[in-house]
Design a protein that fits this description.
3 domains, DNA polymerase, domain 1
């Protein structure tokens, strides 16, 4: 048994050589990434850094750079629009802190976070009036301030929006306000286009007023307009001063000939009263005068006064 086990675990010289070669190959493959990283001349960039470099490459030779007349070009060193330059390798050129872009600040050796802080300050209405104002920037070291001060050139009369820009607040002439006047409206003759011209009256209210007038047979008083369905009292009070009514435009109903169906169509009569008016006439004969309607028990004095202008005896 022992001999069989030893024979099973025993490797020949050829098998031992193959095993050692395989182990060496595995170790070499495992070490390759570390060897490559050590001998590679290029720095592996993070994704955000790649995006930043791409953004700078798309800019055209320092866009927005201001040319200052009569300035010495001794410090105007060409720079590379690739990425953030550490202070020791920063490019130096004349710049206006009020208009410099984030990329330009980074080329000057300012970190992206600080550059974005400056951009936010300017976009919110902040302004640099004198070169020394850059020392107020949060995150900008005293060393950076001293390094950049010789290159600060603020454009004269450049004002941040809304700051010391008094011309924006100059008194401007405004048209004199005049109270709008409205034409008087005959409520029995006006159509919807006339009513719409009144304050607070749209096409919906105008249509309702005209429909209510047609169902009544005409208005005999301005106050009747207030009974229009859905018309707010506040709106009626606005238009009331511009309304008037002419007499003789009322369509009357002959109560000695009208049927129940004809009478009930009138907004002030309806079915119950219409039925009683007709039955009373059938029992007692034609009405001699309008006051005969008062003999009907369900007809109140108030209701009688409302329908009286629409009653005819023929």
């Amino acid at each position: 048994m022992a001999r069989t086990l030893i024979h099973f675990l025993y490797f020949t010289a050829k098998e031992r050589s193959g095993t050692l070669f395989l182990l060496a190959f595995i170790l070499l493959c495992s070490a390759l990434p570390f060897i490559y990283a050590a001998i590679s001349p290029k720095q592996v960039l993070q994704e955000e850094e790649k995006k930043l470099i791409s953004t700078f490459k798309n800019q055209n030779n320092y866009p927005g750079k201001t040319s200052y007349a009569n300035e010495s070009t001794a410090h105007d060193i060409p720079y590379n629009n690739d990425a953030y330059n550490p202070p020791g390798l920063a490019s130096h050129f004349y710049f206006d802190p009020n208009t410099a872009t984030t990329g330009e600040w980074m080329q000057l050796g300012i970190k992206e976070k600080t550059a974005l802080t400056i951009q936010k300050y300017v976009s919110k209405g902040g302004h640099f009036d004198v070169p020394e104002d850059i020392s107020k920037i949060w995150g900008l070291s005293k060393q950076d301030v001293n390094r950049l001060l010789p290159y600060v050139r603020i454009v004269p009369n450049h004002k941040a929006p809304g700051k010391n820009n008094y011309s924006a607040y100059e008194q401007k002439p405004y048209p004199k306000w005049e109270k709008k006047t409205y034409q008087k409206v005959d409520i029995n003759l006006a159509d919807t286009s006339i009513f719409i011209a009144l304050p607070g009256i749209g096409s919906g209210y105008a249509r309702r007023i005209v429909n209510f007038r047609e169902r009544l047979g005409g208005f005999y008083a301005v106050e009747q307009v207030a009974e229009t369905y859905g018309l707010p009292d506040s709106t009626f009070q606005k238009i009331k001063p511009y309304l008037f009514v002419t007499e003789g435009n009322i369509k009357k109903i002959n109560i000695n000939a009208a049927t129940t169906d004809e009478l009930k169509k009138h907004p002030y009569i309806r079915y119950q009263l219409a039925n009683v008016i007709v039955n009373y006439r059938l029992q007692h004969g034609d009405y001699k005068q309008a006051e005969d309607l008062k003999k009907i028990m369900i007809l109140t004095d108030e209701a009688y006064e409302k329908i009286k202008p629409y009653i005819a005896l023929q």
